[in-house]
Structures are given as structure tokens and as C-alpha cells.
């Protein structure tokens, strides 16, 4: 799973930095380019929870293969986009089904113990980040060639097809993950554990229906079960965790929203330097993922405390960047921010799974991805308004949002510290 995740972000990061230039070369106005750019985030918002829950119902392998192949179709269409309309059409399958990393994380959470989960997730994020470091460099070289964008898109689609082959050949079975979920359900004594066991029976019934009933009946059973699980999440008491995730996501997105432009306006540095600085931060993020194991042991596997401290550090570093008087202070903040954001991102996922229950990991990760998608939609709007006042406006607003997340975590300290006692309400 680590190799497909690396290749996933490697392929995507080759194409994404070039998309804005390509759509403008097709004759799109700034407004149209912005609308189409938001299309991806909007579709991710509505599809993340559904696809994540669908993976709980039909199994990780089937859903992961479907998402990889349909994402490959989207990037293949992108490679044929000679008009703005075709460009917009190509973003539809990617926006709906590009949840390969979320499903892979759900699979990892099924296969590893709760104690080892932060370490494994950290290494998974590190492998993904390596692809994000190398992708823009390769994409930049390819785009210099004639029809470079189309070539880059076709290479990205080919990488997704290769990933589909790797996932198909992986030596894992749904029965192993299903047995693990069943054992976790038997150990639980609350209402959600009973609900999880019921959902496992529904999953078996669904698989049986796939063999004996019509395609329409099978699809209806899957949709009904997915909606039931989404309702369970919506009526749970996990709202504060997802609110923390939203606030921290928007805060970090605001930090990066005008990063290149702000450095040029404030310190007169070229965009090339900003690109190198972002690659440097991504490389440090990989190192942070590798060091997550020793760090969690240092914190005695207390995910809440580690998340609180990393979020506090993130808030302080964004404040340092917003008030920086020299480029060296920016470099200092970027250095430590790479560590704090990587650790915080892993901890919030682990806290969602620990409190929400590992039996519905796909659904929980899907909801979390939807929350992040909301941040991707909201952050550019907030950044545009804040930037009207000052180049430091977006990160300064990010400091306020991060501070709000820290206050929420402190207000719910008892809940976070008693991981095993808080589960989803029985439906």
C-alpha cells in the first residue's frame, strides 16, 4: 500500500500545479477557471463520506480498485481536454472517486492494532509526501516539451492503472479485515459495538445479494446501508473532533494560500525561492512521518496530548510567519511547521478512529475528508478577503482559527482523554 500511495501523489502532483496554466491557455477567464477549480472540492465534499462508507459495505479491495480505475479515466480525459468544456468534464470522475488515499488509510486501520496505528499512518503519510516532493519537479520538466501538459496527464493516468494492478496483486483478503472488525466488535460492550456487528451481517447479506440478486437490488441494499451509517455519524457526538479538523485545516490552508505572493511582496524574493522552500518543508514532513513512532512513545501513546501540543506549535509558528521581519524567520517557521502539521494530521485521524470506533473506519475517514473539502472551499474565499487588508491577513486569520481549535480541545479534555468510553450513539 505504501508504493501505490507514493505513486498516487507523485502522479497527481505532476499535473495539479500545471492545471491553472492549461485552462487559461484554453481561453478560460479568471472567473471560469476559479469555478472549475472549485468543482473538485465541491464534489469531494459530497462524495467523500459516501465513498468511504461504501468501502465499509462492499470491502476495501473492490472499492479501492473502482476508485483507482475511475480516477485514471478522469486523468485520461484531462489528457484529451482541448476545450474548457472537456477540461471541466474530466474533473468530474476525479472529484467523485479520487478517495484512494482515504480508503488505503481505512484498510491500514483495519490491519494494524490501535497502538501501532499512529506509527503506521505516519509512515504512510511519509511515503505519500515523497511522491508530492518529486512530482512537481518531473511535471515541470515535462511541461517544457511540446504538448507537455497532455503528456503529463497521460503519464498520470498510466500511473493510476499501474496502481490498480499493484492493488489487485496485493496479498491481502477481505476476510482478514472482516475477522478483525468482528473481534473488535465482540470486545465492545456499548451500543455502537452491537451496531457494528449488525452492520457486519448487513455486509455479508450485501455480498450474498451480489451473487444471487439483480444488480438493481444489490445497489439499493448498498445505498441503504451507506445512508444508515452516514446517519449514525451525523447523530454522533463527534462534531467537536470534526470541527477541530476543519479549523486547523483552514488555518494551514490560509498559511499556504498566498505564500508565494506574500514572500515576494514582503521580502522581494522570487517565486523560485518559494518553490524551493515548499519542497524543503515537504521533505521535512517526510522526516516527521518517520519520527512519529518515537514521538508517540515519548507521549506514552496519548494522542490527545500530542495533538494539543502540535496544534499549539502550529498556531505559534503561523503567528511567527505572519509577524516575521526577515526571510530567516520565515525559513525557521517553515522548518518546524512541517513537523507540527504532519504530526497533527496523523493524530486527528487516529483520534477520530479511536473515539468513533474502528469498525466504521471508512465512514469516519470519509466524513473527515468531507470536512477537509469544506476547508478547501472556504479557505480561498477567506484568503481573498483577508488579503485585501494585508499580505499578512490570511495567516493572521489562520492564527485565530487555530486558537479556536485549541480552545475546543481544552474544553473537551475529559472526553479526549477517555478514548475508550466515548463511542457513537446507538441508532
TrEMBL record:
- Give the top-rank taxon of the lineage listed in the UniProt record for this protein: Eukaryota
A GO molecular function assigned to this protein is: transmembrane transporter activity
Membrane in keyword set:
yes
What are the UniProt keywords, alphabetically?
A: Membrane, Transmembrane, Transmembrane helix, Transport
Q: Please report the record's description of how this protein sits within the membrane.
A: Multi-pass membrane protein
Transmembrane domains' residue ranges: 62-89, 124-143, 149-170, 238-257, 277-296, 317-339
Q: Is Membrane there in the keyword field?
A: yes
Where in the cell? Membrane
What cellular-component terms does GO give this entry? membrane
Q: Where is the Major facilitator superfamily (MFS) profile domain?
A: 1-416
Q: Which PANTHER family match?
A: MAJOR FACILITATOR SUPERFAMILY DOMAIN-CONTAINING PROTEIN 10, MAJOR FACILITATOR SUPERFAMILY DOMAIN-CONTAINING PROTEIN 9
> To which protein family does this belong?
Belongs to the major facilitator superfamily.
- This chain belongs to the protein called Major facilitator superfamily domain-containing protein 9
